[in-house]
Amino acid sequence: MIKTITIHTSEIDDPESAIAELCGRLEKEGPLLAHSIGLVSCFADFISAGAVEDLAKKLPFEIVGTTSIAGASEDAAGETLLFLTVLTSDDVEFVTGLTDPIGKEDMSPIRAAWESVSAGRAEKPGLMLSFAPLLTNVSGDFFAGAFSSVSGNVPNFGTIAVDHNADYHESMVIFHEKAYRDRYAFILFYGNIKPMFIIGGLSEKRAFRDKGVVTASTGNQLEQVNGISVADYLLGLGLQKEPDGAIMGINAHPFILDYNDGTQPVIRVMFAITPEGYAVCGGAMPVGASLQVGVIDAREVLSVTEETIKIALALGRSNGVGSFMLIFSCIGRYFAQNFHPEAEMQKVQEALKGSLPFHLCYSGTELCPVYERNGNTRNRSHNDSIVICMI
Question: By the 8 A CB rule, do 318 and 357 touch?
């Protein structure tokens, strides 16, 4: 069993007060059990002000996490906050790991970090929580695939760091007392742990009816659908051209991508259309996969979020799982709320009605296992999605 304590502070300009508030609230929640770990998400200024480092020095357990543009728990939601969730247990052990700097899609730092943490252990961990750096030349698909390879497909749930800047230059991974721009931190759960994973993407009810097939691609560059260029395919659906020839609204029309292997579809954003008419996407677009063009807007985000929370609660009740939800939602969903950026966070609060504690923060890419037909999991990266790990 894992006991969860979720607390927060808004004292962004006063690190001493922030730490006093967090430690005071933690003390009131009662004694910790044999093993404990802290999950942190925060506005970047908590790092630059020294609050995260000072907090790590004060706590009797390690902390791991990331910066984010915003976050929420049962009793708070907003941007300039720091959230700390403490997981404490007598029968689950938490082991932390950190890679060396990652400069490209190279397995070496990932393999070395995994081996240094898992060496000498006969059992595989039942869960891995991941906190990955936002790097322009390393994809979420690489992270998901690399750790699956070295771990033997341990379920991997996590986020890629973001922050409040347009270029995300303050996005950081938090590991103990320090924060990093280019390292990947993770937590392995050993013992009595049975997580559940729930994913909310885009509703097919609001997608274009046409279903295409990927007929040519290279990595995350989608070249052809149904044998024609992506640009021609999109125009055929009714999307319009700008006066300069660019296709209008591609950022609001992600792909719903089905690998056709029995697993749940994933969402892939379009970042740009190349001069050749190819789409630069937020993840791999394998040949043979099916796709639909979806729609993301404020109404769609809130509808999917509410439905996903309801599904999670129902599955938790039927499977005897559900003392805590860790939730990562894509930063694109945050921006889709326009002038009401807290709307999705408030929707989660309303849907849960205080029934169990949760920790939500916004993500650059979501890492979450999908289920195969036989119930096994396969690690995947996601765009424009809300993902939940229930424990």
Answer: no
What is the Cα gyration radius of the chain? 20
Query: What Å distances lie between residue 144 and 95, 152, 256, 294, CA to CA?
Result: 19, 12, 19, 24
Q: Starting at the edge strand that comes first in sequence, how are the strands of the sheet with 127-132 ordered?
A: 92-98, 185-191, 127-132, 156-160, 366-371, 377-382
The 10 Å CB-count burial string (b at 16+, else e) for 268-291 is bbbeebeeebbbbbbbbbeeebbb
Structural contact between residues 234 and 224, judged by C-beta atoms closer than 8 angstroms: no
Residues 3 and 31 sit within 8 Å (Cβ to Cβ): no
Residue with token string 């039942």: 126
pLDDT in tens, 333-380: 999 999 999 999 999 999 999 999 999 999 999 999 999 999 999 999
118-145 per-residue burial string, b: 16 or more CB within 10 A, e: under 16: beeeeeebbbbbbbbbbbeebbbbbbbb
Torsion region of 260: left, alpha or beta (phi above 0 gives left; psi -120 to 50 gives alpha): left
Tokens describing residue 11 = 């004292």
Q: Closest by alpha carbon to 238, among 226, 249, 228?
A: 249
Whether the full predicted model's pTM is greater than 0.85, yes or no, is yes
Residues forming a β-bridge with 218:
221
Task: For residue 49, give the nearest of 80, 15, 98 by alpha carbon.
Answer: 15
Give the angle subtended at the CA of 317 by the CAs of 315 and 321, to the nearest 5°. 80
CA distance 189 to 97: 12
CA distance 160 to 137: 13
Residue 203 has pLDDT above 90, yes or no: no
Tokens of 56: 């790590």
Residue-wise pLDDT tens digits, 23-71: 999 999 889 999 999 999 999 999 999 999 999 999 999 999 999 999 9
